[in-house]
Specification:
273 residues, alpha/beta, Rossmann fold, 2 domains, 14 helices, globular, Uncharacterised_Sir2-like, Sir2 family NAD-dependent protein deacetylase, DHS-like_NAD/FAD-binding_dom
Length: 273
């Protein structure tokens, strides 16, 4: 574990690491759960609760039905923009968000819709540029941290990846943000935090990243990539190792606390270098 952290810290110090942030980071500051979103959509559509949850439809399918019934996602987006957030004070008090800013990643990708990362940068007086669509890619400055909203941003409804069709369309990995990620990731180390390996979208992304290098014939030259998992198991580790992803972890009672400890150790190693 220490050898992996030292290797990662060296790459962070050289500003050679892309951070990829998942829902676990936002949930650490109290972001509403996917279950709450699903229940809200079901209530608004007048659906019985037995159509959701285990054995029923997931939030992506319910969102697809929502769009079919109401003609657009406008009302849902407005509700999420108002409710799918936490207070500025909670972000300011979050050690995880403070550490993300302090580690000074040149590029941060996130599948989260909320603006917690942007707020954290503003709180700590750090410049950033938000990238949510092709226009933003063209205008993005290279001398400040880029926060790439991989599944969209509330300020641009067309960018939101929320309903089932949106996810299916993204599986081709040929959108402007997908092209950007492949370009960014090929020459850099990637660190994934806040993800569950039950998330098929992130598993497919990890596999595609490995497959790109595997087909190139230069797989041995690929920069190291890492995923933080608070509670890994041998099966997950073996599959990820096959894809060239090293698992890093911390044993703590709570996933948020485990991530905080990991980032703190990483920051300490970066500073010691």
């Amino acid at each position: 574990m220490d050898c992996l952290l030292e290797s990662l810290a060296r790459s962070v110090r050289q500003r050679h690491v892309i951070l990829f942030v998942g829902a676990g980071v936002s949930m650490s500051v109290g972001l509403p759960s996917w279950q709450m979103l699903t229940e809200h959509m079901a209530d608004e559509l007048g659906l019985d609760q037995d159509v959701i949850g285990e054995g029923g439809a997931d939030y992506q399918t319910i969102a697809e039905y929502y769009r079919l019934k109401l003609g657009s996602m406008d009302r849902l987006r407005d509700w999420m923009k108002e409710n799918w957030q936490v207070s500025r004070q909670k972000v300011e008090a979050s050690p995880i968000h403070s550490l993300i800013v302090a580690l000074d990643f040149p590029i941060i990708y996130t599948t989260n819709y909320d603006s917690n990362l942007e707020v954290a940068f503003e709180i700590h007086g750090r410049d950033y540029v938000k990238v949510a669509n092709a226009r933003d890619v063209a205008r993005a400055a290279a001398d400040v941290t880029q926060i790439v909203k991989f599944h969209g941003d509330f300020d641009d409804e067309a960018s939101l990846v929320l309903a089932e069709t949106d996810y299916f369309e993204r599986l081709s990995f040929d959108s402007p943000l997908d092209v950007k990620f492949r370009s960014d990731a090929l020459g850099r180390t990637v660190l994934f935090i806040g993800y569950s390996m039950s998330d098929m979208n992130i598993r497919l992304l990890l596999h595609r990243l490995w497959s790109t290098w595997h087909r190139s014939g230069y797989e041995r030259d690929r920069p190291a990539s890492f995923i933080f998992m608070p509670d890994p198991n041998p099966v997950q580790e073996a599959v990820l190792r096959r894809w060239g992803i090293s698992v890093v972890s911390e044993r703590e009672d709570h996933p948020g606390r485990a991530l905080e400890v990991f980032l703190s150790k990483l920051k300490q190693m970066v500073d010691q270098g």
